[in-house]
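pinned: reference chain
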Amino acid sequence: MIDISYNILWIDDEHETLTGTKGRAKRNGIDLIPFKSLNSGMDELERNYPFYDGVLLDAKFFENEDDAKGTEDTYNVHRAKERLLQLKKKFEVFVLTGQAEAYEDKTFTKAFTRVYKKGSDEEIDRLFSDIKVAAATQEDTQLRHSHKRVFEVCSEKYIGELAGQDILNLMKVYEEINIDNHFNGIRKVVEDLFIAFNKFKLLPADFVSRGVALNESSKFLAGKSSDGSLFIEKGYQHLEGTHLPKQIAIYLRSILLVTQAGSHRSDIDLHVKTIKTPYLLKSVFFQLLDVLAWFKMYADSNPKTENWLKLEASTDIPKQITEQTNGKVININLQKGFAFFQPDAIGDNIFIPPHLVTNHSLSEGMPVKVEVEEYTDNRTNELKNRVKHIEKL
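pinned: its structure tokens
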């Protein structure tokens, strides 16, 4: 049975003295995330509202965290309600107070219909029960509980809470309208995942230090291609023992092939615009969820860290692709003359220079065998791959 818990933002300037209330809430499946003041609590809610399932307020509290004792004011609870109404997500507001003038005042209870007395066991039991009933109707809450294992990895220990917000947004996509935004959302979560690999010392810092190198990270973590040849990425070789499981490696390559901007994206865009369904997006998204559930299990298993070999720049470094590779010609640019090679095995498409396209009279979809070389891009000073030699099959 999956344990269900609710995240409730709580503003009460005396929360530090109410440890009993916090513990009692915890035993009822409620995590109270406390703040002393209007601005600190509402700033947090406005930034991270998808994370929260409800809001609990005192009747009087500070405007700012460093306000002096005695400046608490009921005006702030009304200001909090006004700010709550501006959020995209709507919360039912609960008030737990010891102020008799609040729970006995008809004007106050008209503005806040859910008011409960501090110090009353019966009232607090009713409060926690009502909070859970209201929270359970939230769409975000239902999604987080339905996919509990996925959202367990969306903490600062693993991939971060912001990734959890991206995942919630993607779960609520029911029509394919803004394809780039949705695919970009998936790619951002993959970036967060690779940063987490580095955090757990399972991926060298060079792969994430100046932006996340998605393709290189994926290939390094996989360790080897489908034909068993070892990948050398950014001068690193991933040693045996911590290579990704085959299915996880396949998932990541599939996700990146669809979501990466690049030569193949015109085909993806055309497909989605033609078929007008969300199923391609959903398919790679659910692959990502499977990867995330696996990652938490893996990270928690204390895998061997820094299991790689740093290869010094020398003639001893093997080239990334030295053997001939079978595949086909795709995306011929009729104006500029270049094309791309798509390998039959899992891997990135590789640039074919114009002179090879012309000399070999290449055509779209033609089966070929190629040899690839590494070169330095003069504009970006980056190491890239291109086809060096090509044969028709």
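why pinned: The first strand starts at residue 6 and ends at 11. The radius of gyration is 27 Å.
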